[in-house]
Amino acid sequence: MQNPTPYDVVILGSGPAGIQAAIHSARKKARTLMLGRVTNSSLYWAHVENYCCMFKISGEEILRTGREQAAGFGAEFMEQDVLSISKQDGLFSIVPENDEVITTKSIIIAMGTTRNKLGVPGEKRLLGKGVSYCVDCDAGFYRNDIVAVAGCGSAAAGGALALTQYASAVHLVCDKLDIADALKQRLKESSVTIHEGRSITEIKGENAVQSINMDDGSNIDVAGVFIELGAKGVLELASELGIALDDNMRYVTVDRKMQTNVEGIYAAGDITGPPLQMAKAVGEGCVAGVEAAVFAKRLKRD
């Protein structure tokens, strides 16, 4: 299903950069939607004591208050992670977990940069030798191989489904699936083998990944392990859209208007690079929100 009227601005990310962007774009009367789970923001679990004009305050309270402000200006919210983005006929199409296609004139990426690791033996040593943090980047290297995906969120579920187009067998290892019902149903109807209630304890191999050990003592022979903890990250989305990254392939490159090399796509917050501070995120979110709204309104006139 597709939303009948395109949004002016869709913001990916639920942290301070995204909220500030939502406040400013909505104040400019741009139809604004924020996508993402608030608990995915690293600020949600933190306490802040170095932000201007505030004494120590919980990140959860900051985000709650910010969302109320944005909602007061008309911003909408959807607690769903993003699975894919494409562009067609001048509009961006975003597919969240519930498979509802959302169209928009502009996008602000404010998802942060944390790439969670399993922290198990073999993970660091075999990185690039079968261990990967990006299904979209590396799936093609595992045609007709057996692979495993570690994670319980949308990135893991979506990655496992994507890998079925390449690998001969896909194992999804997770403690407890935490995804929308529509995505869970797609997963269960696929060829993916789900090991729910399990976790990987070791990734084994000499010069390349050969197998994984799990906490129940079992062992699965695999050629690759994709670690996808949380929501889909910048590497995956950038590869889909052709967004330019920095030389280390970690941060999104933007100009002073927070615009990327792709017209209509902006970025703000930790995803644009250090310092990884709320003050910077809020400032960049302000600029991105204003510029994205102006861009969308210009499209209306054209």
From TrEMBL:
Domain of life per record: Bacteria
A molecular function GO annotation: oxidoreductase activity
Pfam families xref list: Pyr_redox_2
Keyword tRNA-binding: no
UniProt xrefs under Gene3D superfamilies: FAD/NAD(P)-binding domain
FAD/NAD(P)-binding domain ranges (all copies): 7-285
Keywords from the named record: Flavoprotein, Oxidoreductase
Protein name: Thioredoxin reductase
UniProt source species: Pseudodesulfovibrio senegalensis
